[in-house]
Amino acid sequence: MKIHKENVLLLYLHKNWKPLVLFILFAFCFTIVFSLSHLPIAPILYSIVLCLYIGFLFFIVDFFKFRKRYKALNHLQKTITVQIGPFPAPKNVIERQYQELLQIVAKHKNEWTVQADNMKKDLVDYFTKWTHQIKTPIAAMRLLLQSEPSRQNAELEMELLKIEQYVEFVLQYLRLENMSNDLVFKKNNLDEIIKQAIRKNAKMFIRKKIHLNYSDVTCTVLTDEKWLLFVIEQILSNALKYTKEEGSISIYMKEKLLIIEDTGIGIRAEDLPRVFEKGFTGYNGRSFFQSTGIGLYLCQQILTKLSHAISIESEVGKGTKVMVDLEIRAIGVE
């Protein structure tokens, strides 16, 4: 606190050094004139002391006013992001003009913020409608491909599955910001959620001849079924993407941890601390051109809002182990 007062005093002296120097210069000039006029020394000293006393009182009062304004402006720094003002009363026309300029800037900033929010809302609404509408032609294409079974159609159906996953990915990404309004917490059978994710990726397992190690999980978890299903699907999709043909993927529980382990290419040690960063693709993403850098970021964000947690262990050439902690930690109100 003492340092704060000393700083304010230094700021005040820096602001008013010109009047102080001018006051001292005037006192010195009067002293020289009086002494050259051969006046008695007593009146001269009396005048100097009186001027110093009056000047001291003036600067004391002015300093306390300055400190009060300084504290008011410091307080404004904490609330300026919410609202502009109220400012201390301006001391002169220059201060008033500065305050008017800030009011104008704040007004324009609010207008631009509203405009940007409206544009973002329109964009989200457009892509949300697009993702829903694109599902119809995807479903029609799947029916057409299934109506004429062939090796080529099977390959096309796999690519169509990827498109469907990417569409679902976009939809969930758009919903992420306001997902709290869409959460429905209840006790869910984890085994059913996992099996839904496996069924959705069954054709990819068959195509790549990847062995699945999974036995029924007798576990119920307090969560939102739809969002947890999306996370498990995303983790499984990554495991399938980076596991070579005839590899294996294991899904099992260890206490409250859901573990999805693959025998894929693995993740470099230097990339592991950043795998949950938005847009980070790492060595694998740059080498295989399949990573968007959004999937694991999205998983972590969703699991955080579900009050779960996610962590990854990996070794290059041996595989990756993704661990989802399904224990409820703390559900906050947003």
UniProtKB/TrEMBL annotation:
GO terms for molecular function: ATP binding; phosphoprotein phosphatase activity; phosphorelay sensor kinase activity. GO terms for biological process: cellular response to phosphate starvation. PROSITE patterns: HIS_KIN. It is found in: Cell membrane. It comes from the Bacteria. Residues 129-330 form the Histidine kinase domain. It catalyses: ATP + protein L-histidine = ADP + protein N-phospho-L-histidine. Coiled coil: none annotated. Keywords: ATP-binding, Cell membrane, Kinase, Membrane, Nucleotide-binding, Transferase, Transmembrane, Transmembrane helix, Two-component regulatory system. It is an enzyme of class 2 (transferase). Its EC number is 2.7.13.3. The keyword Ribosomal protein does not apply. InterPro entries: BphY/WalK/GraS-like (IPR050351), HATPase_C_sf (IPR036890), HATPase_dom (IPR003594), His_kinase_dom (IPR005467), Sig_transdc_His_kin-like_C (IPR004358). The keyword Cell membrane applies. One of its GO terms (cellular component) is plasma membrane. This is histidine kinase. The lineage of its organism: Bacteria, Bacillati, Bacillota, Bacilli, Bacillales.
